[in-house]
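Ligand: zinc ion. Inputs:
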Amino acid sequence: MVSWEFMIEAGAGSGAPVSDGAAASADDGSVPPEEIAAGFRVDPLTGTWVVLVQERQHRPNLPTTGCPFCPGGLEAPEPYDVRWFVNRWPALPDGRAEVVLFSPEHDQSLGSLDLAQLRRVIALWAERTRVLGGRRDVEYVLLFENRGAEVGATIAHPHGQVYAFSRVPPAALAELGQQGCPVCSELAGEGQPGPSHQRRLVAEAPGWQAWAAWAPSYPYELVLATDRHIGDLVSAEDVHEGLARVLKQSLGALDLLFDEPMPYMLWCHQRPAKGGPWPSAHLHFHIAPTHRAPGVARYVASGELGSGVMFNPVDPEAAATRLRAAAARLPEI
Ligand SMILES: [Zn+2]
Ligand SMILES: [Zn+2]
Ligand SMILES: [Zn+2]
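Predicted complex:
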């Protein structure tokens, strides 16, 4: 029987519920009518942002003829190494939702790619960040991946997505609004998360570290960040190789943890595209694996949604120990 540990420190992190809807609104506090017409709403009770994407309900759960992402398929008619295209069922309008294909090989996964292919994915992530961030109607570029049918990936072919938001979204803004840089504090062993940082370390590569989150919402949740205070992928080409290595170690360890492909949600937080230098922005990735035991999903329950407090059955230091043991079984990169 696993004991459920209440991690009161969770409130200090980014997992706290968004209670201030002002960031989602125009200067006078209201959402412009054209945005409401486009499906953007702010819940008056909670301040939560919601985008209504009714059309997506009509998308097929599974393609009927072959894989659309394999070379020669509907979305990839020509041979490719990596590829991006505008999502046919976009969650955001005006070409601001894209799909990124990680590999032409259907049976690969992001973590199984060789380093050269991972470098191509990272270079494409940086390019889409730069190009989409350069648009007048884009303030924030979110790179992410849903891996596994359990987290809604309808096509098994390795792919991720990009959302280009017209405003900096609440989860990113909550991190950016903190005093100083919480990532640098963690790395320097300062402040609350600091003292146990080394014990939560899971993987290292030149310029990067991966560690079990101090106050994880999901068991085995990881943070990957650059050693140096770098704002985004575009300005960090010299650490792309290290990112490829630390991603491969982290995702490989997660797949070996229960000896089954780990379903996960992965996203990248980086500097907003507009609004000044954002001095607190520190490039990092979050990986939220959804299994807490072999084949057993961790669901966010009503006590958690209702309170805004997450309850986690796995101590992050223990999670790091298990993930380090799994990483030690990986072949040499
Ligand atoms: Zn495929
Ligand atoms: Zn920093
Ligand atoms: Zn973050």
